[in-house]
């Protein structure tokens, strides 16, 4: 049983991120783990984060949906969590997957404001609408509550039941145009990566500068939310493009393309720099699609796709699903992706810009909780 819980926690680990391009909602972990009514279990449980992530995926109709978690430092020694759970949260903190703060204050709202993300919380945030006007918008603050098949969202402040993203705030756009350096050695949020600061060798994470979290703004000064230190400007942030993989009409995952790192997509490329599709493919698609089938590169803002397969690919110009429009992409051939273009590795296995590739199939979820033992999943009667 302990082994199974570890596997669930590993699955949840793949769904926490501080990458501004990938996070889809913001949560306060200290709040989520104490929603005892979600499963009627222990006073605190990290598995509840998995339940909330699953609920978010159901609502967005997408798989592999990550959340941005703010973690109060006290959680690392919270006796209501198991020692295993505390260890896991500590690992997430060390790897910069979550933000650990001494005084979270309204950092949840600040991140949601800068990135334009919905907040999943039962807090009403009274009196903060002046500072964060979007708190009154539908879908920006949703409270996960017990439902028949796991948590469901109810409007808490602004109405609506589906999470809604706004745009990044003007300040967020400015902050995310630069990369930042924390003077604190080994800072997991604004440490090494890119230029490699004086303490780069001490950093536990070689974090890609394109994936740096948004700084905290204190009295107008970009500040490390973890260390409270003024951040140094380390130059322009590398350009990125967010791509999505859609299989059988369902978006299975998103990934970030940067100018420094091409990404291989196929049946089984090296996961270090590739997107592995094998788990979602049927036998015929598996036979057709090569281990590394296509390579994506970002060059001066343009997405370039190169076929690296045995059997070739196709491009659907402007997203047209008419067979007559489909262009063949022969092995070794390259093409600049125009607006709306969708690359098709095999019929129904598609890659395109995330904002141009919505899910359009009935959601068949791959739960992060799939490995959860029934004991931890004892759902209360709704
Ligand atoms: Zn720092």
From TrEMBL:
It comes from Micromonospora solifontis. This is FHA domain-containing protein. InterPro entries: FHA_dom (IPR000253), SMAD_FHA_dom_sf (IPR008984). Residues 263-315 form the FHA domain. Keywords: Phosphoprotein. It comes from the Bacteria. Gene3D superfamilies: 2.60.200.20. The keyword Phosphoprotein applies.
């Amino acid at each position: 049983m302990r082994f199974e819980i570890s596997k669930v926690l590993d699955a949840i680990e793949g769904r926490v991120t501080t990458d501004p391009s990938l996070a889809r909602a913001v949560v306060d972990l200290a709040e989520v783990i104490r929603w005892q009514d979600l499963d009627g279990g222990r006073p605190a449980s990290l598995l509840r984060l998995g339940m909330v992530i699953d609920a978010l995926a159901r609502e967005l109709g997408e798989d592999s949906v990550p959340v941005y978690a703010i973690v109060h430092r006290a959680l690392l020694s919270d006796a209501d969590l198991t020692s295993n759970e505390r260890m896991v949260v500590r690992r997430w903190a060390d790897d910069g997957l979550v933000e650990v703060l001494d005084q979270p204050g309204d950092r949840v709202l600040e991140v949601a404001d800068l990135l334009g993300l919905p907040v999943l919380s039962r807090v009403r945030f009274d009196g903060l609408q002046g500072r964060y006007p979007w708190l009154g918008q539908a879908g920006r603050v949703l409270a996960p509550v017990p439902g028949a098949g796991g948590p469901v969202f109810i409007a808490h402040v602004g109405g609506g039941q589906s999470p809604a993203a706004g745009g990044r705030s003007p300040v967020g756009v400015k902050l995310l145009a630069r990369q930042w350096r924390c003077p604190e050695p080994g800072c997991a949020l604004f440490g090494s990566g890119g230029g490699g600061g004086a303490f780069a060798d001490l950093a536990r994470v070689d974090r890609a500068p394109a994936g740096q979290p948004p700084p905290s703004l204190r009295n107008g000064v970009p500040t490390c939310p973890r260390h409270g230190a003024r951040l140094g400007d380390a130059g322009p942030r590398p350009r990125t493009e967010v791509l999505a993989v859609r299989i059988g009409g369902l978006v299975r995952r998103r990934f970030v393309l940067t100018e420094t790192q091409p990404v291989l997509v196929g049946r089984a490329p090296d996961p270090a720099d590739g997107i592995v599709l094998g788990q979602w493919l049927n036998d015929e698609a598996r036979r057709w699609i090569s281990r590394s089938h296509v390579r994506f590169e970002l060059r001066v803002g343009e997405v370039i796709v190169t076929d690296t397969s045995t059997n070739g690919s196709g491009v659907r110009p402007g997203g047209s699903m008419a067979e007559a429009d489909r262009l063949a992409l022969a092995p070794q051939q390259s093409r600049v992706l125009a607006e709306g273009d969708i690359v098709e590795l095999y019929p129904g296995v598609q890659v395109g810009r995330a904002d141009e590739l919505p899910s359009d199939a009935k959601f068949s979820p791959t739960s992060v909780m799939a490995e959860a033992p029934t004991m931890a999943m004892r759902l209360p009667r709704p």
